[in-house]
Write a structure and sequence with these properties.
This protein has helices at 3-11, 26-32, 37-58, 77-100, 116-129, 145-162, 174-179, 224-236, 245-248; strands spanning 18-22, 62-69, 104-108, 136-143, 189-192, 211-214. It is an alpha/beta fold. The chain has a single domain (3-148, 187-248), classed as 3-Layer(aba) Sandwich (Undecaprenyl pyrophosphate synthetase). A six-stranded parallel beta sheet has the order 3-4-2-1-5-6, with helices on both faces. Helix 2 crosses helix 3 (37-58), helix 3 (37-58) packs parallel to helix 4 (77-100) and helix 4 runs parallel beside helix 5. The relative contact order is 0.19.
Length: 253
């Protein structure tokens, strides 16, 4: 299949293969109700359940959720502590349901700052679901896009060193770097709730040609209807990947 034909096929997608979501607005949702910010984060758990269920129903293959960025450590200590407790609870309470629904869970991000017990809880959840063949659910915790790219190059160098090879920059290419990222799949559709129009150091490499849908809905209010509107927006887009519209629509070069 030619490169143009591949792009034409991608352009005909009505359902994105990989959806990434920046789950923004929990704190504002709580503030509007006179509650502490952690109240909004807890309410957002139900939106995660709805998003996972919708993705499974629609045949989306990969769903990546931005739960906690490497920059979020700058937030108030009580909020950070509450978020970590909430994530730890969710790993225990939700993973069995994910497993029953054939969802494969993968936690992406830098684990080096977490306690041994927390890392073990993550590993146990991943191991339980590793052979599932349904939706791949990536949850980004202590994740940053720049870190991801640098870490991929470090992994490549480490593998070459383990083989007794000296580093050769000529071996680097897009496919090799992609294969060593935390989430190697390119993103088709990025959804951001809360109305902000920025990508916040999320999946920088994988977002190269993604469509972006921004909703003013705050994350705890995110539901199947909002997700469906985002998917319909994606289906309406002409994805060119650097080509002309005529090429994608089947015209001459």
């Amino acid at each position: 299949m030619s490169e143009i034909a591949e792009f034409q096929q991608l352009n005909r997608q009505t359902v994105p293969n990989h959806v990434a979501i920046i789950m923004d607005g929990n704190g504002r949702w709580a503030n509007l109700r006179g509650k502490p910010r952690i109240f909004g984060h807890r309410a957002g758990v139900e939106s995660v359940r709805r998003a996972v269920s919708f993705a499974c129903e629609k045949g989306i293959r990969v769903l990546t959720l931005f739960a906690f960025s490497s920059e979020n450590w700058r937030r108030p200590k009580d909020e950070v502590s509450g978020l970590m407790d909430l994530f730890s609870w969710a790993l225990t309470s939700e993973v069995k349901k994910l497993h029953r629904n054939q969802v494969k869970l993968k936690v992406i991000g830098d684990r080096s700052v977490f306690s041994e017990s927390f890392v073990k809880r993550i590993s146990d959840a991943e191991k339980l679901t590793e052979n599932n063949d349904g939706l791949l659910l990536n949850v980004a915790v202590n994740y940053g896009g720049r870190w991801d790219i640098i870490n991929a190059v470090k992994r490549i160098c480490a593998e070459m060193s383990d083989k007794g090879e000296s580093f050769d920059a000529d071996v680097l290419n897009e496919q090799l770097v992609s294969e060593h990222l935390e989430a190697p799949q390119d993103v088709d559709l990025l959804i951001r709730t809360g109305g902000e129009k920025r990508i916040s150091n999320f999946l920088l490499w994988q977002l190269a040609y993604s469509e972006m849908y921004v909703s003013d809905v705050l994350w705890p209010d995110f539901n199947e209807e909002v997700f469906q509107r985002a998917v319909e927006y994606f289906a309406s887009r002409e994805r060119r990947f650097g080509c002309t519209g005529e090429q994608i629509r089947g015209g001459k070069r």
